[in-house]
Amino acid sequence: MPHQEPTEDGPAGAIPTFDLRRDGYAAIDWAANYLENVRKYPVMAQVSPGEIAASLPERMPEKGEPFSSVLTDLDQVIMPGITHWQHPRFFSYFATTSSEPAILAELLAATLNQVALIWRASPASTELEQVTMAWLADLLGLGDGWHGHIEDTASTSTLAALVAARHRSGRNAVVFSEHAHSSVEKDVRILGMHARKVATDDEFRMLVSGVAEQLAHGDVAAVVSTAGTTSAASFDPTPEIAELCARHQVWLHVDAAYAGSAWACPEFRASQAGVAQADSLVVNPHKWLLVPSDCSALFTRRPEALREAFTIVPEYLRTNDEAPSLSDYGPALGRRFRSLKLWAAMRCFGRAGIQEFIRRAVRLAALFAGWVEEDPDWELVHVSLSLVCFRRNGSDEENLAIVERVNRGGEIFMTHTRLGDRIVLRLAVGYLHTTEQDVAHAWAVLNQQSG
Ligand SMILES: Cc1ncc(COP(=O)(O)O)c(C=O)c1O
Question: Which of 63, 70, 96, 109 has the fewest CB atoms within 10 Å of its CB?
């Protein structure tokens, strides 16, 4: 092919350039204004399915546009379709909060764009991840002997643990409770393993007798014990399950994706019993530790089992560095610099700041639970940490209608679940700037919408 001189309209001239400083200041101003004014928005997006897509062009632009047009469309087209997870009256799913230092660290991580395939591809990312995981283990009072690395989500962390459990045992069944998070069942399905669901007691805890029954089959690779279930933040009896797993030489994985963060406070560590006997443990800093999604910490006492299951070194990655590659412990080869935001949050809040943040959320949930308990029109069903499950006296349909009305109103956003044979409403506290007034407002809105 003959050499082509780049012309103004030719290939070279078509690559736009940007003023990072000018665009960056505008983006930071945008972010700061958003967080200052987030209360003005309806918490749950008030759009219909397809509305946002319909307001976007079907094709990308032929010629590049200035970054300012992205910010303009962010305001005009995208924002109506945003459900505001960083709204102080977001009470849905689980406590999920970002924080200013971690937001900035995420920007810096994208700037450095580390792809930590192996140690030499990013020594700092690899080693900061090891150090922050050791800090996290210490913050949560996990004790010694854990190897930690970061995955994107708890779904992936649990997947990695199950891969290791199967690789080590050659067995193919996984035992978990009917209240375990759906990601466990999805992981089992992805891996072509067999799901063995165990019933729960009236406190939504996995029945030890059911686990024992399953282990007797002799084909179980792993048991997943949940510390803080999604519906009720209930805790499976991990010490008893750990004993059974040890007896049958079965991998024990503890899913503490939400509740594990509470162990930053010594007074909430009773629920950690049995975790020291687990083979692996997942805690999500992107839920309740002030780090924006995604950031899931996978700890294991059997790093060699993960390494054996995951290590493949193609020629182009072969080196004589005597250093670990964290890609040997999970599915992803290209690993982004997630530890930077966790490091920023841990440094900037400090242990005391994190503890007060967790305690405040638990206090606010207890306050709300007290109001529910005192009101004869409502029933308090379950309280654990910063999650309150409750219902209005009446049918399931009436309770579902209340949640729908409340969410459509936009002043608060919450979800429902099923506990036993009844629908309950869930109020999950955990955003960094949620106050007592916000929780009181939630209670007022619920009462207004129930009349
Ligand atoms: C107990 C529990 N485990 C796992 C998950 C899945 O987390 P992720 O979205 O990080 O995969 C959740 C999500 O809320 C959860 O509550």
Answer: 63
Beta bridge partners of 423: 418
SS (H, E, C) 88-118: CCECCCCCCCCCHHHHHHHHHHHHHCCCCCC
| Within-domain flag for 313 | yes
Ligand 1 centroid to Cα of residue 103, in Å, is 21
Q: How far is the CA of 403 from the centre of ligand 1 (A)?
A: 22
Asked if the structure places residue 163 within a domain, the reply is: yes
| Residue 8, pLDDT score | 47
Please say if the pLDDT value at position 325 is more than 70: yes
Nearest CA to ligand 1 atom 16: 230
Query: What is the reported pTM?
Result: 0.95
CATH number at residue 238: 3.40.640.10
255 lines ligand 1 (CB under 6 A): yes
Report whether residue 268 contacts ligand 1, using a CB cutoff of 6 Å. Answer: no
Categorize the per-residue pLDDT at 12 as very low, low, confident or very high, splitting at 50, 70 and 90.
low
Q: What is the pLDDT of residue 14?
A: 85
Query: Which pLDDT band holds residue 13 (cuts at 50, 70, 90)?
Result: low
Find the 97 Cα to ligand 1 centroid distance in Å.
14
> Does residue 265 fall inside a structural domain?
yes
Among 197, 163, 165, 160, residue whose Cα is nearest residue 181: 197
What is the tally of structural domains in the chain?
Answer: 1
Helices 154-169 + 303-310 axis angle, to 10:
90
How many A from CA of 71 to the centre of ligand 1? 31
pLDDT in tens, 174-205: 999 999 999 999 999 999 999 999 999 999 99
* Rg of the Cα atoms in the chain: 24
- The answer to the question of residue 228 being in a domain is yes
Measured in Å, residue 2 CA sits from the centre of ligand 1 at: 56
296 close to ligand 1 (CB < 6 Angstrom): yes
- Ligand 1: which residue has its CA nearest to atom 6? 154
